[in-house]
Structure formats: C-alpha cells, structure tokens
Amino acid sequence: MFGLGWPEVVIIAVVAILIFGAKKIPEFGRVLGKSLRSFQEGMKKPDEDDNSEQS
Length: 55
What we know:
Elements: H1 6-20, H2 24-54
C-alpha cells in the first residue's frame, strides 16, 4: 500500500482520528468513495465516446 507498512498506516489513522475526531472519519470515507467512483466513471465515458465516433 504505497510502500507503507502496517505500523505507518496505524500511526496515520491515529493522527487522523486525533485531528478530525472519530465522527468525521466515516464522512470523509464516504466523500472519498463518491469522488473515486465519479472519477472512474468519468474515465470510462471518454473511451465510450471515442468508440462511438469510430463506428
């Protein structure tokens, strides 16, 4: 995972909880998931447009 070991991931998670609080972390996760999903859909759409123009 990006060259990070489990100890580093745990430290990052603890710092994030201390900074943002435990209630905000799931909200950030949802926002990040939605952003990644829309980014992936956006990456697929130009490919579909290119294919339809070639037909």
